[in-house]
Amino acid sequence: MPLLTSENIDEAVRVCMRARVPFAIYRSKGSENVYLFADDNTSEKISDNTFFVSPWNGERAIILDDRLSLDCLRDMPASDCRQDDACPDFEPSTPREYYLESLGALISQLKAEGGKTVISRIITKNAEIDIPAAAKICFERRKDATCCICTDADGEIWLIASPELLLNVDWASRKATTMSLAGTKPVESETPWDKKNIEEHDIVTSYIAERMRHLGTEVSVSDVFTRDSATVSHLCCMIQAGLCDGITGNMAAAYLSPTPAVCGVPVEKARRNISDIEKHLRGLYAGYFGVETPGKDFTAWVTLRCARLRKNGFCIYSGSGITAESNPEDEWNETAIKARPLVNILDRKSVSNYEQQR
User: Fold this and answer.
1) Quick one: which of 53, 126, 142, 238 could link to 313 by a disulfide (CB 3.0–4.6 Å)?
2) Cα dihedral: 92, 96, 101, 104 (round 10)
3) Is the pLDDT of residue 154 over 80?
4) What pLDDT score does 1 carry?
5) What is the rounded distance in angstroms from the CA atom of residue 176 to the CA atom of residue 300?
6) Average pLDDT in the 245-251 region?
7) Is the torsion defined by CA of 341, 342, 348, 349 positive or negative?
């Protein structure tokens, strides 16, 4: 897979957009290596490595083969297709009043029935967006996250800076690793973790550990620690198991997704709550994406801290876990804090507007 540098990320996005080729540019958390996947479905493969992205609903997942280098893309003519030159406006941002009222009713339900549901909202703005420049800034700033800019099955462009590992499989040892990441507070907060966040993390950990037991053997769960991600801190622990024979990386990832960190528990009940409350389609948000190197490793990340981009605007997705202990105002503020890094990249003059929007 072609290796990019921080200096040519924006160029790679620009030439892929010009040629209208399905593409992904990907850098794993903790790595300096930035990889390009561009797939015209006709050129010979450069390698056997693949990029994959699966949406929230598990449908229309796409796999990109490694077919086109940056040099090839530079030589490709601009596409004659002009269907996206006049992009429609994004749907309006989630109204604050609706969000607070809906969460109030959901919290009452959870107090009576138990469980957890992750509710997201969208923050949108119609404005001219320099997509290649935004991608470059994101990759430069978010060294603490796995960064990706890619196209979905409809050809729309998504920018992602995810802190959450869904699954890593080392095929030499068949060791599968995931994480339980839940509970949120501002990164600068010195307040101890409260009951609501601790219980939320416990719910996620128990669910993921049980799912891992179905996939493998000798499941181990690490001690809980605090993990910082840009503007917020989370409770985290690592979960490992030996993957059973016959299970592929994609099978395991699909079995683990969606986790309670982006959906809730019980899963089907949480899905119904999400469908009833959220007025927007999630698309790639809360699905997963990653890279597979056959015979070596498979790595998938949860699609969090993400935005859908068009030349004339953006739509940021931000969610929080709702339990019986939740407070609607606190959850609204949490989603604003989570969205702030992307807002700063895409609309640096309007941060305060989005945190107070009504």
Assistant:
1) 126
2) 120
3) yes
4) 56
5) 11
6) 93
7) negative
Beta-ladder partners of 344:
none
- Cα–Cα distance for residue pair 162/172, rounded to 1 Å: 26
Cα–Cα distance for residue pair 100/321, rounded to 1 Å: 14
CB atoms within 10 A of CB 8: 16
Q: Confidence band (pLDDT; 50, 70, 90) for 85?
A: low
State pLDDT tens for residues 281-338. 999 999 999 999 999 999 999 999 999 999 999 999 999 999 999 999 999 999 999 9
Single-letter amino acid code for the residue at 283: G
Report pLDDT digits (tens) over 256-285: 999 988 999 999 999 999 999 999 999 999
**DSSP state, residue 156:** -
Task: Specify the residue for token string 């899905």.
Answer: 271
User: How many other CB atoms sit within 10 Å of the CB of residue 142?
Assistant: 22
E strands along the chain, which residues?
3-4, 23-27, 34-38, 50-54, 62-65, 116-126, 146-151, 157-162, 165-170, 175-186, 216-221, 225-229, 232-243, 264-265, 288-293, 297-302, 306-310, 313-322
Query: How does DSSP assign 159-216, residue by residue?
Result: EEEE--EEEEEETTTTEEEEEEEEEEEETT--SPP-HHHHHHHHHHHHHHHHHHHHHE
Q: CA 106, CA 343: separation in Å to the nearest integer?
A: 28
Q: What is the pLDDT at residue 50?
A: 96
CB 282 within 8 A of CB 56: yes
Q: How far apart are CA 44 and CA 41, in angstroms?
A: 8
Amino acid in the structure at residue 263: C
The phi, psi pair for 264, rounded to 5°, reads 135, -175
Nearest residue to 51 (alpha-carbon basis) of 316, 42, 61? 61
- What lies within 8 Å, CB to CB, of 206 at 6+ separation is none
